[in-house]
Amino acid sequence: MTVEYEAMTVGIVLITTAVLIWNKIRIWKRVRAIDAQLAKMQQEIDILQMQESRRLMMALKANSKVEAPKIDPGNGPAEIDGGDVVRLMNTPPTTPAQ
């Protein structure tokens, strides 16, 4: 009877080991498949982010061209003849009333 129990114990250990190894392989394959799907999704997200950033840059360029202030030819640079500027530079600073 002891030999039968030992044989049954060895059989149970072998079956349990086989089931555990089979489960580990199955889980490992599933993780690899999920990892591949995540890598694919990450690539798609990166592509979409690049497209969106390009779209935003194009929109910003278009808006900056539209909203840029136009230079009026009649509003050219001011000519300084020296009169007002020199007078302002030579006046002593005023102190505020206390």
Describe the secondary-structure layout.
Blueprint: H1 2-67, H2 83-90
Tell me what the structure shows:
- The chain is an all-alpha fold and 98 residues long.
- It has a domain at 2-66.
- Helices cover 76% and strands 0% of the residues.
- It has 2 helices and no strands.
- It has helices at 2-67, 83-90.
- The longest helix is centred in the middle third of the chain and has 66 residues, at 2-67.
- It is elongated and about 120 Å long.
From the structure above, extract its key features:
mainly alpha, elongated, 2 helices, 98 residues
Whole-number mean pLDDT: 81
Structural class: mainly alpha
Q: How would you sum up the global shape?
A: elongated
Helix and strand run = HH
Q: State the end-to-end CA separation.
A: 116 Å
H/I helix tally: 2
Low-confidence stretches: none
> How much helix is in the residues?
over 70%
Query: What is the strand content?
Result: under 5%
Summarize the biggest pleated sheet: none
**Radius of gyration, CA atoms, in whole angstroms:** 41 Å
Number of DSSP E strands: 0
Structure, briefly:
The protein has helices at residues 2-67, 83-90. The protein is mostly helical and 98 residues long.
